[in-house]
Amino acid sequence: MTQYEGITRRGMLGLVGAAAATVPLDSGAAGAQAASGEVTVRMTVNGSATSLTVDPRVTLLDALRERLQLTGTKKGCDRGQCGACTVHVDGRRVVSCLTLLATLDGASVTTIEGLADGDRLHPLQQAFIEHDGFQCGFCTPGQIMSAAAVIAEGGARTDAEIREQMSGNICRCSAYPGILAAIRQARTEMR
Amino acid sequence: MDFLRPTSLADALSAKADQPEAVPIAGGTDVMVELNFDHRRPSALLDLTRVPELATWEPTADGGTRLGAGVPYTRIITELGARLPGLAMAARTVGSPQIRNRGTVGGNLGAASPAGDTHPVLLAVDAAVELRSVRGTRVVPVREFYTGVKRSVLASDELITAVLLPRAGGPQQFSKVGTRNAMVIAVCSFGLALHPGDGTVGTGIGSAGPTPLRATEAEWFLTGELADGDLWESPKPLTDSVRRRFGELVAEAAAPIDDVRGSAAYRRHALSVLARRTLGWAWQDYRTGGDQRCA
Ligand SMILES: Cc1cc2nc3c(=O)[nH]c(=O)nc-3n(C[C@H](O)[C@H](O)[C@H](O)COP(=O)(O)OP(=O)(O)OC[C@H]3O[C@@H](n4cnc5c(N)ncnc54)[C@H](O)[C@@H]3O)c2cc1C
Ligand code: FES
Ligand code: FES
C-alpha cells in the first residue's frame, strides 16, 4: 500500500486497513496474502448508538444477525432477490444482504425489532396477524419493513400500487392475499 | 482488504490513481452479489456513496441533462421522468424497489453487462459518458463505450462521473422481455428515441449480443420512410409494412446467442415484436403531441 505524498492518508480518505492490523485473509486460497484491515462503523440501530469493528466485506445483514443478535432480519438468498432481509437505512428500504456495513458510518438503521412501540405492536405487525399475512413467517419481517416504507412514501394508494411496490418481497408460502389485506388496513391506521 | 472512503471526487480520483485495482462500489447491487458468493476477491474497495459530486444531476446549457453516475434509479424515476422519459422507463423496470433505491446508471455502465437495462436507452438517445481520472476528463459517446461482454473503454484509473443526455426532443420508449414482471434480467430489450428536430431516430438493443447494440440499418430505413412521406410535417399513422420492416431490421442487427434465458431465434423474434410495438407507441405519441408517454 503506497502512502499519499504530503497528505495524511487517514484524514483524507478515512482509509482503513493499515499494515498493523494484519490477519491472513484466506488461508485456504493459495498465495492469498492480502492483509485484512478492519473498519469501524458508528451508526444508530433501532434508536441506539452502536459501534462495530468488522472486516470491510461484512454485509449489514450479517452484522445485524451475527454481531448484534438481531435475527429478525432473515437471509433468504443473499443476492438481493427475495427481500427477506429488507431494513430501513436513513428511512429508505434496502436489502441488507447487498449493503456493506462499512458504507454505513453515521447512518440510522431500523429493523423489524425496532418497529413496535414497547409492547404495543406496530399497526402493520397487528394487521399481518389479523389478516393471516404469513404462514411460515420467514419472509414476514422483510414484508413488514418493506410495507412500512411503502406506506410512509405514500405509495400504497391502490391494490395495484401495493402489489407493484411490494414486488421485491417474495413469499414462498404465497400469503400474498393476506399481505395485501394487511397493508390496506395498516395504511388507513397509519395515516 | 482496504476499504477506501473518499468524501470528495478529487479524493476518489486520487485513490483510484493510487490503487487502480480498487473496485468502485456505488449501489453495490452488482458488486455485492460477486462478493457474497466469492466470485470476486478485490484487494480494495472504493466506496463512492460519500462522494457528493456523483449524487446530483443538473440541466446543461443546451437543454440536456448531466446525470451524476451515483444518482439511484428511484430518483431518476421521481425527479427525471419528464426530462429523461426513456431512461425513467428503463429505470422503472430494474430489479425491485429495494434495488432501485440503491442501483445507479454509473453501476450499470461499470458492469457493462449486455443485459443492463439502461444501455438500449442511452444508445437510442445518443448519450455520452463522462470519465475522469487525475489525468483529466474525457467524454465518450455511449456508442463507443462498450467494447465486449462486460468490457468498456473505462481505464483502470478512471471513474465514471456522469452521463450526458441530450434534451428529449420527441417521444422515447423502452421495453423488455422477461419471464415475470419484477426482478428479471432481460431476455432481450429495446430502446427507441424519435428526434423530430433533425428528422432522425435512435435505437438500442439489449441482451442480444456481446455488447448493447444499435440497429443502424433500421434507423436509416425509418429515417428515410419518415422523410419520404413527409410524415414529420403531416404525421399519418405508419403502415403495417413500415413497422414490420423496421422490426425485421432491428432483429437482423442483433447478434444473440442461445442461453438459459432464451434461444437466439426467440430473441430475434421478440426483438422484432418489441421494435414494432415501441415504434407504434412512440409514433402515436408524436402524432397526438404527447411526448411524455408513461410505460
Ligand atoms: C435482484 C437484482 C435484480 C437486478 N435487476 C436488474 C435489472 O432488472 N436490470 C438491470 O439492468 N440490472 C439489474 N440488476 C443489476 C444491478 O442492479 C444494476 O446493474 C445496477 O445498475 C448496478 O448499479 P450499482 O450502483 O448497484 O452498481 P455497483 O454494484 O456498485 O457497481 C457495478 C459495477 O460498476 C462499477 N462502478 C460503479 N460505479 C462506478 C463509477 N462511478 N465509476 C466506475 N465504475 C463504477 C463497480 O466497480 C462494478 O464493477 C439487478 C441486480 C440485483 C441484485
Ligand atoms: S437475503 Fe437479501 S434479498 Fe434475499
Ligand atoms: S410466510 Fe412463508 S415465505 Fe412468506
TrEMBL record, chain A:
Q: Which SUPFAM superfamilies match?
A: 2Fe-2S ferredoxin-like (SSF54292), CO dehydrogenase ISP C-domain like (SSF47741)
Provide this UniProt record's keywords sorted from A to Z.
Iron, Metal-binding, Oxidoreductase
Q: Entry's Gene3D superfamilies? A: 3.10.20.30, [2Fe-2S]-binding domain
Is Kinase found in the keyword set? no
Q: What residue range is the signal peptide? A: none
Q: Which CDD domains match?
A: fer2
Instruction: Tell me the ranges covered by the 2Fe-2S ferredoxin-type domain, including all copies.
Output: 39-115
Q: Name any one Pfam family assigned in the record.
A: Fer2
Name the source's superkingdom: Bacteria
Indicate whether Iron appears among the record's keywords: yes
Q: What is this protein called?
A: Xanthine dehydrogenase YagT iron-sulfur-binding subunit
Species annotation = Kutzneria viridogrisea
From TrEMBL, chain B:
Keyword Nucleotide-binding assigned = no
TM ranges: none
What keywords tag this UniProt record?
FAD, Flavoprotein, Oxidoreductase
Report the residue ranges that make up the FAD-binding PCMH-type domain in this protein.
1-170
Q: Sorted alphabetically, which SMART domains does this protein's record hold?
A: CO_deh_flav_C
Q: Is this entry keyworded Flavoprotein?
A: yes
Protein name per Swiss-Prot or TrEMBL: CO/xanthine dehydrogenase FAD-binding subunit
